Amino acid sequence: MTSIPTRILVANDQEWTGRSLESIFEAEGWEVLRAYTGLQAVDRSLEAHPDLIVLDFQLPDISGPDVCRRLRADPRVGWATPIVITTAGSNGRARQAEALEAGAWDFVAQPFDGPLLLARLGTFLRARMEFKSAQALAMVDEGTGLYNARGLSHRLQELASDASRRHQPLSCVVLSVVMPDLAEAAQAARDLDRTIGRAIRDAVRGSDAVGVVGPLEYAVLVPTMSQQAAGELVHRIERSVSALRPAGVPPLRLEAAAVDVGASPRLEEVLGRTPRPVPQADPAGSSG
Fold it and tell me: Closest by alpha carbon to 64, among 22, 35, 93, 24?
């Protein structure tokens, strides 16, 4: 059985430092990917799904902690991927606190102690492998990177509790893709599932929680958004889905409805309610 090599993303715009880390990791047989800016680190992390990410604190565009926060907020990376932030500058208490509060698992100052660094990362990678082996029980759908029903149910409890405290609305938009002869296009449907997931993710806000609730069925938990305002969200998703539709796939019809979550919700109850029609958004886009 061929093992898949450990994949490490190193984000550092200093060539000497990057090469130093690369040589340490490649000596362990790890595959090393490079990024030179914060935004490039975000993109490569979401595309390549590395097992561990090493970020420099001071990248040329956005800081390592900012990159870390963005990746922690995206379920394709979430909190299960080890992220380590390094620094060649000050390693004082305030900088360490900023890195750890952003979600880094560790904060390492240069110059690097190779054996000690490998011991730390080895522990993190073992934890990562444990997570991957139990991913079937996790809260993220592996194919789309969205929450699965279990994950969305957990997130619903959190968002509903926050909405209740703030006396703000929380809506749930349920979407079903209707595709002719779907039974005869199982593989196309699986590919389409990934595309639709990406399109929905691109259309919603960072605070919204997107999950898979069935084959080509998705739900979006939208804090602070009423059912009336959810109409514009549906139109944004429709435009995003249309833009990403793969070549050769027939035109898609998106069926959507929004329900008010209400108090003490359970995901099964929310999805099982007779959905109310989504109000038509203002053509001028003024439905906020």
Answer: 35
